[in-house]
Every structure is written in structure tokens, then in C-alpha cells.
């Protein structure tokens, strides 16, 4: 998955808007983070803890939780991982931010 594909999917979700600048692009709904560019080749997706654990368990090659994000409701996704799983995580994050 590429950042362009992340953009295409995220902005297809009602109310989800792209912000940021090159190298630090992010997508928000109602000014609440859904997904943002992180380390090269990764994005950070804001999901609740239960969804995060489920995603990591189901797709360990795609998702992980670096130590600095353990206390946060975020999961790191490898863009070269399962694109459908990344889209699922983004959709979960979008839904989480709309609650």
C-alpha cells in the first residue's frame, strides 16, 4: 500500500480530511487523528486498545506496537503489509473518532 492509496481510502470516508505537510501527512475527522505518516514505510493508526490487540494478533506482519506507543491508542502499520487489513484499521479508526 502507498501513501496515495491511504489518502484515497481515508478521504473516501465521510468527513475524513487530509492535513499536514510532505513527510508528515495525516488524515483527521472532526480534527481528531485517524491515521498519519510515521517512520518511513509506516503509518500510525489511532484505534482503541481492543481493536489494536485484535489487529496485531490477526496480522502480526502488518501491525505492531513500538514501545513508545504502548500507552497510546495507536497501532503502527507497515505499508508493505496486508492492504486490506490496513484499510480495515483505518476504517476502525475513522469510526472510533466519530463516536
Automatic annotation (TrEMBL):
Taxonomy, superkingdom: Bacteria
Organism: Pedococcus aerophilus
This protein's name: MmcQ/YjbR family DNA-binding protein
